[in-house]
Amino acid sequence: MTGMPGSSWSGPLPPLTEKQQLIHDNLKRHVVALAGDIGERSVWRPQSMAAAATYIRTAFAAAGYEVRVQSFSSRGEKVSNLEVVLPGGAAADEIIVVGAHYDSVATSPGADDNASGVAALLELARLLAGTTLPRTVRFVAFANEEAPFFYSDEMGSKLYAARAQAQGKRIEAMLSLETIGYYTDVPGSQGYPFPFSLFYPDTGNFIGFVGDLASRSLVRRAIGAFRASTAFPAEGVAAPSGIEGIHWSDHWAFWEAGYPAIMVTDTAPFRYPHYHAATDTPEQLDYSGFARVTSGLAEVIAVLASE
User: Fold this and answer.
1) Torsional class of 83: left (φ above 0), alpha (ψ -120 to 50), beta (otherwise)
2) What is the number of domains present in the chain?
3) Residue 80 contacts by C-beta under 8 Å, 6 or more apart in sequence?
4) Is the residue at 1 inside a domain?
5) 60-89 pLDDT per residue, tens
């Protein structure tokens, strides 16, 4: 459950590289646009959902992609999953999905949850644009992850995964980018569901790779690639899916469809004091740590798409 390849980074972090500084600036711009300018995003605020979708489509297109739209009806409103594809080479029928939900919980502008995941999604698509990897990579922004849609047939990722299953798509791995922008060096800042506090650090300065027992191999491959390439703390766990927090994102929908999937997260309510609150605003995030994580995730995706 807890033994992972490699070692988590410890000690001072090196300065951001020029590439990471650009990632930093782009991530901040995306989060400010989604959580600052647009704000709360849900079917009860259809204009905000539409504005967020337009922003995401524009950013994907600016990186050189053709955007595919999977629309569906929710509470009388049309909402959409938005997908772009990086075509694969020798193993093009094998697919890596990288996804993040762009809705927010009611009453919250959702900077960390989940403008951060969407910002990383957009940056990862930009960073990998134009490359040819053996496997196909699909970047997807999902609608309707937050309650009351989680677990329901109006959950965007559930519709997406079910359709992929029905079409016989070979999804070899799915990464859900969920609340990945907050890091702190304050001792005692990190909490856990029982019994993980016995095995993991009490300081919330790391990125987490989280999966169920069936996705154990994927957790290990992903965190191994991250630790091998990136100077930033990272922890991983593969645990029974019923444990609190293990299934709390779009990766759950892919488990339901029989696909290996993991969540990449800053652990959300176990660390972030503004989780699901009106104070979840863009200035709360650590964009330097966020940039390092995003840079490392580009390496993870490249490894997973080359296996």
Assistant:
1) beta
2) 1
3) 53, 69, 70, 71, 72, 143
4) no
5) 999 999 999 999 999 999 999 999 999 999
CATH number for 137? 3.40.630.10
Q: pLDDT per residue over 136-163, tens digit each?
A: 999 999 999 999 999 999 999 999 999 9
Amino acid, single-letter form, for residue 264 = V
The domain containing residue 185 runs over which residues? 18-304
89, 23, 64: which is closest to 298 by C-alpha? Answer: 23
User: Of all residues in the chain, what percent carry a pLDDT higher than 70?
Assistant: 100
Is 5 a member of any domain? no
* Residue labelled with tokens 């991530």: 27
Q: Which long-range contacts (CB under 8 A, 24 or more apart) does 187-196 make?
A: 189/271, 190/267, 190/270, 190/271, 191/270, 191/271, 192/267, 192/270, 193/243, 193/244, 193/245, 193/270, 196/2, 196/237, 196/239
Residue 263, SS3 per DSSP = strand
Measured distance CA(302)–CA(307) in Å, rounded: 9
d(CA 144, CA 152): 9
Q: What is the largest CA-CA distance in the chain?
A: 52
Does the global pTM surpass 0.85? yes
Is 13 within the bounds of a domain? Answer: no
Residue 107 CA neighbour count, 13 Å, CB half: 7
| Within-domain flag for 240 | yes
Local confidence band at 19 (pLDDT 50, 70, 90 cut-offs): very high
CB atoms within 10 A of CB 40: 18
In contact, 4 and 219? CB cutoff 8 Å: yes
Cα three-residue angle 300-15-175, rounded to 5 degrees = 20
